[in-house]
Design goal:
Helices cover 25% and strands 23% of the residues. It contains 5 helices and 8 strands, in the order E-E-H-H-H-E-E-E-E-E-E-H-H. The chain has a 3-stranded antiparallel β-sheet, with no helix packed on it. Strands 4-7-6 form a 3-stranded antiparallel β-sheet, with no helix packed on it. The chain has a two-stranded antiparallel ribbon with strand order 1-2. A hairpin with a 2-residue loop joins strand 1 (6-11) and strand 2 (14-20). The two termini are 39 Å apart.
């Protein structure tokens, strides 16, 4: 398996780049996927499935999983704060595993200095700054907050959800009629739709407590 690569996957309705292989494999190791599927995949195939599963789960819960840099913009020049929309779950189960660090606050216009650390502060998901600490040089200029967010390590619910989703999706690629996860032995009918996507019930129940409330 190659190392140190940069990956891209579907997240929050778009495809993004800049997710490192290290960030992905710190959540679920390809070797664990190979073991979970009794050696049916090699390590490179397992990494591909991990990336797919993380993208699906991110889209479902509306939160970043693999650690990466994100950008948020203030709505207008008069704003003195903004809420970071894409942050990890703050629950006690997730808190020991997450990172969410503001890297800088400044304008997206050329030649405008970034705000100093004394001019802004962060409390939870809200970043605020002193009134008048910046002024747009052009009508299209915005104040941007650059931050790094995601799970540095995986809580148990995330590891289980990724493994079960990979198992479910992989099984459905095999020779038909091959039962999807949970359809054997009179279990839950995994072909029934779950809210928002055709997720296995086992996966949906693991991730739903950590989703953004709409």
């Amino acid at each position: 398996m190659s190392g140190g690569g940069v990956l891209g996957y579907a997240v929050l309705g778009a495809t993004v780049l800049g997710v490192s292989e290290v960030a992905v494999t710190s959540l679920v190791a390809p070797a664990d996927v190979v073991e979970h599927l009794d050696g049916a995949l090699d390590l490179d195939e397992a990494l591909t499935w991990i990336v797919r599963a993380l993208g699906v789960i991110e889209g479902e819960i509306g939160r970043p999983l693999a650690v990466r840099q994100l950008v948020a913009e203030a709505d207008c020049a008069e704003a003195t704060n903004l809420v970071l929309e894409h942050v990890p779950c703050p629950c006690p189960t997730c808190a020991p595993h997450v990172t969410c660090v503001v890297d800088g606050v400044g304008s997206d216009g050329a030649g405008v200095a970034a705000l100093t650390s004394a001019q802004w502060r962060r409390r939870g998901a809200v970043v605020s700054w002193q009134p008048g600490s910046w002024r747009p040089a052009a009508w299209s200029e915005a104040l941007v907050v650059t931050y790094t967010a995601g799970y540095a390590t995986a809580p148990s619910w995330l590891t289980l959800a990724v493994l079960r989703l990979i198992e479910h999706l992989w099984q459905r690629t095999q020779q038909a009629p091959h039962p999807a996860l949970g359809q054997t032995g009179g279990g839950h009918d995994e072909s029934l739709p779950s809210p928002g996507w055709l997720l296995p019930y086992a996966v949906s129940s693991l991730i739903s407590p950590h989703a953004v409330l709409s």
